[in-house]
Amino acid sequence: MIPFSVLDLSLITSTGSPATAFANSRDLAQDADALGFTRYWVAEHHAMPGVASAATALLIQHLAAATQRIRVGSGGIMLPNHSPLSVAEQFGTLETLFPGRIDLGLGRAPGSDQETMRALRRDHNSADRFPQDVVELMHYLGAVEPGQRVVAVPGAGLDVPVWLLGSSLFSAQLAAYLGLPFAFAAHFAPDHLEAAITLYRREFQPSRYHAAPHAMICVNVIAAETDQRAAYLQTSLEQFVVALRRGRPGTFPAPFEPGTHEWMEAEKAMLAHSTRYTFAGSTQTVTEKLARFLDRYQPDELMVAAPIFESGARRESLSRTMDVHNALAASA
Length: 332
Prior knowledge:
Elements: E1 4-8, H1 18-35, E2 39-42, H2 56-65, E3 71-78, H3 84-97, E4 102-107, H4 114-119, H5 130-141, E5 162-166, H6 169-178, E6 182-185, H7 193-203, E7 215-224, H8 227-245, H9 265-274, E8 278-282, H10 283-297, E9 301-305, H11 311-331
Helix pairs in contact: 1-11, 3-5, 6-7, 10-11
């Protein structure tokens, strides 16, 4: 059975705070560690009221210190916001503190709007340099070459595992060209999943990092005692997505009873499309849905996000997700 991993947005709920979000992320990471998940990643977003993981490397340090075995990393660092040298130094520091447990996932999007990007003091054309910046960053993490004047300390020679993340064909093709593992963000951008995975596998060039392609797909999983309970929990994600699409992002909202609020037809269509790879239901229901998904796309690894308002329900969903993993392993 393929490995299961976790993506955490460190959600700030409508009744919580960043401090509460960090405490909840710590608890969830410890659960993921004990349950046997392979990785625990957090994502860089800026100026979003509902997401606390802006200073991603700092949060990774907090989570790695609170866990024992699980790999902790970025899903991802938005490289256009940073210099490759500074990222190499940050993740070299993390790898030095937690040897063999750090992943560096890289994204090409800024993780923010244009105004926020200007506040980050980044050039609006920096995304165009993404391939060159990835190569430069990997150079800093590799062995020091004769005459090399700029050296990442710490970082040089540590070869922190680099992943490329994406929701389109661009990063899939670049990951294939560089011989790197690739993660597709189907949990919020489902459109190009099949095309991106197919392209990545077809064009993959073996490298010193990976001899064969390694494709991970990220989906949402909301697992609960019953299908009805899961549908109730999913309404928080629906509200969050609609607010984002309206250009009014907010904190992560409390759920409401299905049927007590009626979305407009355009919103229904948008939600059906954008949450296509959200698997909600009882443990049995999620097992059946994920079995069909895995059979179709054959990922080498599955990453799950649990966008749930209440921390206890989020932790329960994660435990049930590992029950799904074990059930699928047994049937295989």
